[in-house]
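Section 3.1: Structural characterization of target chains.
Under the original work plan, the team committed to producing a structural model for every single-chain target entering the pipeline before any wet-lab resources were allocated. The record below documents one such target. The sequence was received from the expression subgroup and is listed exactly as submitted; it comprises 118 residues.
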Amino acid sequence: MREKLKGVSIYWLDGDLETRVVGLIAEKTGLPPSEIMPETLLWHDLGIAGDDASELLVEYRDLFQVDMKEFNFARYFPSEIGFWCREREPVTVRDLVESAKRKRWTTPAVPQDPTRDR
């Protein structure tokens, strides 16, 4: 059993769902978990986009067994070269936690605050 766990982040093995999702994001971004809040926006606050967003979401899907069939990547994240193309709908850490609870992607219900800085 120990061999199978080699290289697996402690965040994946222990803690509640929110802690585990935050741990995955922290591991992928290099940020300390204490800087990642439920309201943190993946693209707008952390700059996760393109291949980085895709890799994070694939790992998230596999780790938390979330059905992502309804997830439209271009709706939420720009490509590596299309950062300027158009505004994207926000995805928060909380959105990932809620979808992991349901085991399927759930479109964020709360619209973006138009007064929020980008």
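The radius of gyration is 14 Å.
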